[in-house]
Amino acid sequence: MASKRALAVKEKLRRGEIVYSAWLTFNDVGVAEVLAGSGFDIVLIDTEHTSITLENLHHCLAAMKAWDPVTIVRVPGHDPAGIKRVLDIGADGVIGPMTMDAEHCARLVASCKYAPAGRRGFGPRRASDYFRDMSGYIANADAATFVIPQIEHVEAADRALEIASVPGVDALCLGPMDMSATAGLLGQLDHPTMVAAMDKVFDAARAKSLAVCMGFYLPPEQQPKWVAKGARLVIAADDLANLRTGVSRDLAEARRLLAR
After folding, report:
1. Reduced to 3 states, what is the DSSP secondary structure of residue 216?
2. Cβ density class 105-125: b for 16+ within 10 Å, e for less
3. CATH code of the domain in which 134 resides
4. pLDDT beyond 60 at 146
5. Residues labelled catalytic
6. Do 173 and 212 contact (CB within 8 A), yes or no?
7. Beta strands in the chain (DSSP E)
8. 1, 203 in Cβ contact below 8 A?
């Protein structure tokens, strides 16, 4: 079931268009269905910092197929065996956290592609509709699979161009909070050192005609600034952030209207 939408979304990014995504961080199929049915081009699924297991990821992917958003999983690390399992159950791609240099990135790409382009082992159970669509899957798997290195170390920002130059990279993802920590500036995203480091990533992406993903949700009014820099893979929603701010807003409004 190599996603036809994945190929279409890749083409939109190549044309310089904006695509819209949402973070799924709750280990819950219902939340996955709500996001998938809301019209996003991509649902990003975080298995690095959440309790989402491989089994529940399988359930979420199956539930979201009714709306067929592109599904890209941030894996916990660059383990080829873990990446293989995520792709075999039907994810359309991966974000590789803490990608440090071109060699590291090339190994990430190789884990997502079949030989001769890579070294992914063959066994796409759910991804090939349980082997009912083998020929269709084989024909499109490498081209349709998203590979997105996440640059989240200040030293990796210095190597952003070499990372962006690795064949098979579809976009770059920033990790501003981790990057600020590696610079000794945790949370100080407006510090000149951080601005310069992130600009290196944007410059590298622009040189290779790649979109950037900010890696975390920003309110709509803050998005235009970053899209202008090249963050065209927009994170327009985040299940936790939207739940937290939504319930707090509604509670405050109810108290305001009902106060006596």
Report:
1. coil
2. bbbbbbbbbbeeebebeeebe
3. 3.20.20.60
4. yes
5. 49
6. yes
7. 19-24, 42-46, 70-74, 93-96, 146-151, 171-174, 211-213, 233-238
8. no
Q: ∠ CA(211), CA(64), CA(245), 5° rounding? A: 70
Domain that holds residue 61: 4-258
pLDDT score at 260:
67
Q: What is the pTM of this model?
A: 0.96
Tokens 């660059």 found at: 78
**Which residue shows structure tokens 């130059």?**
165
Compute φ and ψ for 5, nearest 5 degrees: -65, -35
**Close Cβ partners of 255 (under 8 Å, ≥ 6 residues apart):** none
Q: How many domains does the chain have?
A: 1
Residue-wise pLDDT for 167-217, tens only, equals 999 999 999 999 999 999 999 999 999 999 999 999 999 999 999 999 999
**Separation CA 211–CA 169 (nearest Å):** 10
Place of tokens 């950037």: 212
pLDDT in tens, 5-58: 999 999 999 999 999 999 999 999 999 999 999 999 999 999 999 999 999 999
Three-state SS at 68: coil
